[in-house]
Amino acid sequence: MVKTYDPKKVLISLGTHAVTGYSDGSFVNIEPHGEGTTKKVGSDGEVVASVDPDDTATVTLTLLQTSPTVAFAQRMYGRFKETGETFPVLVKDLKGGLLFAANDAWIVNTPSREFGKGDTDREIEIATGAATWEGES
User: Fold this and answer.
1) 3-state secondary structure at position 30
2) Which one of 44, 54, 65, 75 is most buried, counting C-beta atoms within 10 A?
3) In CATH terms, is domain 7-134 a member of 2.30.110?
4) Please, are residues 101 and 26 in contact by the beta-carbon 8 Å criterion?
């Protein structure tokens, strides 16, 4: 069975804002927090498995410096600092791959800025509340 991947089919939304201007290379990284599962083995060999309840994650977007999402992130960072307003985040591969979603997310800090002879990428770090992961990675 042949499976295909097309970066143009990866959709990312931050609330009602559709992310555009993906970097030429890796453009989204989703890092889960918490320990996942751990095990402990007692002296008599009894095993206990524990599930970490931390379902939060960090989503890092790498975008072109001209991406409208950079300005959106700056506005949302200001709103979060002022009012605590969060937004939902969704990452969906229309070819059937990974689906990631969180109802509550916020911009961690002002998006990075770097200037040079040519265009430079911008990184936006997004923290989430409880998140769900579905599909293949």
Assistant:
1) strand
2) 65
3) yes
4) no
